[in-house]
Design brief:
About 70% of the residues lie in helices and about 0% in strands. With about 190 residues, the protein is mainly alpha-helical.
Length: about 190
């Protein structure tokens, strides 16, 4: 397994697959348990297989690209109703997920500066960086706060009752931290 993950192509494809899989936690599927598998796997890859900063950026970028290309398909679908917009479809299909995947690439790039190891502090650093970049993403270039990770909790209404007190982005931080808790199993 280790030699399989040392091949960069397979590593990037696994991260792309993890991003696509994570998108199934959002409505209408609402398979929230997937986040308990994909986020620890992403952090495990980040800790053990990214020694260079450009590799860490591409790991996060591929995760983000897979995540956004699989859950923003509706943008390209909406462009099919008018013939005048058909030429925009390839740009919308590739450029929007590429732009948004860059933010997740920044998360893993920033985390690589902290020399993540098999410790609880790695979970906190990763979740703070991830939620901070998602907060930043909602304001840059007019804002694009769609498909935050916390939206996977929208099926569970009692969980959302905390929103008036802590806000969406704080709940995003809390949920990412909780999703990363199974990583402790990898630490041993």
């Amino acid at each position: 397994m280790r030699s399989f993950l040392k091949n960069k192509t397979y590593l990037y494809l696994i991260c792309l697959f993890l991003g696509i899989l994570t998108s199934f936690s959002l409505p209408p599927y609402n398979l929230v348990f997937i986040n308990f598998l994909t986020f620890p796997a992403l952090l495990f890859i980040l800790i053990n297989y990214t020694y260079k900063k450009n590799i860490s950026f591409l790991v996060g970028f591929m995760f983000g690209f897979g995540y956004f290309i699989s859950n923003l398909y509706w943008i390209t679908y909406s462009l099919t109703f008018d013939v005048n917009f058909k030429f925009i479809i390839p740009f919308a299909l590739i450029l929007i997920p590429t732009f948004l995947g860059t933010f997740y690439g920044l998360v893993t790039f920033i985390c690589n500066f902290f020399n993540l190891r098999n410790k609880i502090s790695s979970i906190l650093i990763f979740s703070i960086a991830f939620s901070s970049i998602e907060f930043l993403r909602s304001f840059i270039f007019g804002g694009f706060p769609w498909n935050l990770i916390v939206f996977s909790l929208s099926i569970n209404l009692p969980t959302l009752q905390i929103l008036p007190f802590i806000g969406t982005y704080s709940l995003n931080l809390l949920s990412i931290t909780i999703f990363l808790l199974p990583t402790v199993v990898f630490f041993n």
